[in-house]
Amino acid sequence: MIAVHDNADDRRAVKVRFAPGTDLAEARVRCPQWNPLWDRVRHEFWSDVSPTTQPSIAPDRHVR
Length: 64
Fold this sequence. Notes:
Layout: E1 2-6, E2 9-16, H1 24-30, H2 35-49
């Protein structure tokens, strides 16, 4: 279970239960009102797993 807090009003908390393995796309469908939150989650995830200092394709390799 996660609690989603509105930073503007810390008294408001919404508890949402996601089954283990729920992906971000399904969370977006279930709770579209939180799209800014899902965008932030996606951004933080990809920032952690994909370093920006390395090119995605080596300069001497080509995609076909």
